[in-house]
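Q: I have four molecules that I believe assemble together. Could you output structure tokens for the complex as a whole instead of separate predictions?
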Amino acid sequence: MVQKKKGRPRKFDRDAALEAAMLVFWEKGYDAASLDDLTAAMSINRPSLYGTYGDKAALFREAMRAYGDTYGKSAIEAFLGGTTPHQAVEGFLKTLITNNTQEAPSPRGCMMANCGPTVCETMEDVATELQNGLAETEQLICGRFDAFRQQGFLPEDFPSVARATMLADMMYGLAFRARTGTCRQDMLYQLSDRVGAILN
Amino acid sequence: MVQKKKGRPRKFDRDAALEAAMLVFWEKGYDAASLDDLTAAMSINRPSLYGTYGDKAALFREAMRAYGDTYGKSAIEAFLGGTTPHQAVEGFLKTLITNNTQEAPSPRGCMMANCGPTVCETMEDVATELQNGLAETEQLICGRFDAFRQQGFLPEDFPSVARATMLADMMYGLAFRARTGTCRQDMLYQLSDRVGAILN
DNA sequence: GATAATTTATACTGAATGGTATATAAAGTG
DNA sequence: CACTTTATATACCATTCAGTATAAATTATC
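A: Yes, here they are, computed for all four components at once.
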């Protein structure tokens, strides 16, 4: 049952403001994103930010999770939604390339791959979450490979674990390339080679 | 000929201080590395830093170049020094894993892969340098693959470009893994799979 | 309508930031 | 030895930083 809260109701959409914060962190990284940057993008004031999310670090962690639940999720969903290994791998990589090279307001690259690692030495819990997220992704990929193999789509000796690892490596390679300026077309050009490398 | 400079001689070793700055940037990233952090690690004072390197951004760019000329170079040198494809690829990946998981004072991961991308959206020249550095690395790898092929070490239809790309992707995958806490042993465990993926 | 609870808005705080002015020290040059 | 040049050391600057105190506003409950 939905219980109405007592005090003055929040004036802004919590998730929409979080998404706006995510875009700021994604563009500038954790340290260069000032509270003025954040509150301006979120269209809220500082006490609202602190009251709703905690502090800057907590907001960053939530923003990372929000990124994982949207952009991050879309690639693995495309993979799991594929009905053939080729479709799965191609869908995964294509989604990554698309996400990494979207126009404004999205910055280039991947928030988790490009902005997460910088703070790992000072925010150990972020490091752990990123590591766990990668492990989870690889497990999902590996499990799906195994299912494909059992369905006869892949040879009996298909090395699911190694290929899942390789696909993850490509994810970080693509993120770096996009962040440093490689355009979508150039990455799509290599797509079939990458798919082939994973499946052959 | 070595011409002595006129004024008071510099009291510190320019390269050693640059290396100290590099370690700070590597650990904290560009924005979180304060001038107090930097000058303390370099054992110099602010005017010396500004007089010698310019400003914080210029110091960062030099530190990135210094990283590339030492840590970055060592991996590609190991590759080029290999006398067989297997030796080259394994040496490349092994050097990366070693560099990415060194003990103190080295932070985890790779400065260029983990700390460079964060600032790409605000320092476009850094983005360009990172992109060029990657392109150069891939060309060197590709060229060596071609030479191996002509020597008969690799099949006639070996896809040098695609495999060079894949090897670069692994570089970024390893950097992410190391930065987020994967230990050396775990990455060495996957080594033979990665070598096989590149060469088979 | 009074009260309690919660959010908002503005203004503020002490600390930290990147960068510099000023003065002193140490070298070469005439 | 005077002069020029360069580097060092300290102290300083205006700005920006993350975070908060205070008071007004808006809701539910009694």
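A: One point stands out. Residues 4-9, 11, 34-36, 46-47, 50, 55-56 of chain A lie near DNA strand D (CB under 10 Å from a C1').
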